[in-house]
Amino acid sequence: MKNLGILLSGRGSNFEAIAKSVAAGRIPDARIAVVISNRATAAGIETARRLGLSAFIIPSQGKERTHHEVEVVSALQQHAVDLVCLAGYMRLLSPWFVRQFPGRILNIHPSLLPAFPGLEAQQQAFAYGVKVTGCTVHFVDEELDHGPIIVQRAVPVLDTDDERSLSERILEQEHIAYTEAINIVFEGKFEIVGRRLQRKAACLGE
Fold first, then answer.
1. How far apart are alpha carbons 19 and 157 in whole angstroms?
2. What is the pLDDT of residue 146?
3. Distance CA 68, CA 57 (A)
4. Are residues 141 and 195 in the same domain?
5. Predicted local confidence at residue 206, as pLDDT
6. Alpha helices for the chain (secondary structure H)
7. Which CATH number goes with the domain that contains 160?
8. Is 79 a catalytic residue?
9. What is the mean pLDDT of each run of 10 residues along the chain (206 residues)?
10. Strand, helix or coil at 73?
């Protein structure tokens, strides 16, 4: 059984999608061991508690970054987490944090990276006038929205779109992509060559 740790700061819709996938067996032999938020008002924590999951608030406001990260890492380690999934976690992880879980932290970003990193990615895509955008699940490294890409899903930008409608359609694909990426990582049938994640032949059915 693989243990997932979820970090979130808000409503946690990607966390909910992961939880549904775990419950439905779409992520086999896995469980959500712990859900952690840095914000007491995060709706995702209430969702986690309603689902009967271990859920903790570890406030970041008013604390030194190092102190806060030590607390979060300790909680993840106490729950024997195999994979950390960022689900709308609005904190940039320090290199020290990343080193505690090498190759075991995932993030989802609402653009086709490397396009439009950082905040308000959907707004950036819409303002730039791109015809295709989407979402990316990637390994977290020591740089912002930078680690090797695991899964990307494309979303066309329609002439009838506004920022809200585009964001909603990207979010639908995020929920699918995160489950795909977690399964790829847990299967372990891949290697990282440079920046490229290459799945092994047996995994591709060749």
1. 29
2. 85
3. 11
4. yes
5. 47
6. 13-23, 43-50, 65-78, 95-100, 121-128, 163-187, 201-204
7. 3.40.50.170
8. no
9. 97 96 97 97 96 96 92 98 96 95 96 93 91 97 89 96 93 98 96 90 53
10. helix
Q: 115-147 as b/e, with b when 16 or more CB fall inside 10 Å?
A: bbeeeebbebbbeeebeebbbbbbbbbeeebbb
* 110 and 206 within one domain: yes
**Residue 87 shares a structural domain with residue 126:** no
Boundaries of domain holding 178: 106-206
Among residues 68, 79, 109, 138, which one is catalytic? Answer: 109
The predicted model scores a pTM of 0.93
Q: Which structure tokens are listed for 110?
A: 């609402």
CA–CA distances in Å: residue 146 to residues 24, 64, 86, 170: 31, 25, 14, 19
Whether residue 199 sits in one domain with residue 124: yes
Are residues 135 and 197 located together in one domain of the fold? yes
Q: Count the domains in the chain.
A: 2
pLDDT at res. 49:
97
Structure token digits, residue 67: 């102190």
> Residues 187, 2: contact at Cβ < 8 Å?
no
- What is the gyration radius of the CA atoms in the chain, in angstroms? 17
Tokens of 167: 């964001």
| 114 and 74 co-located in one domain | no
Q: Is the dihedral of CA 186, 76, 107, 29 positive or negative?
A: positive
Distance CA 53, CA 146 (A): 30
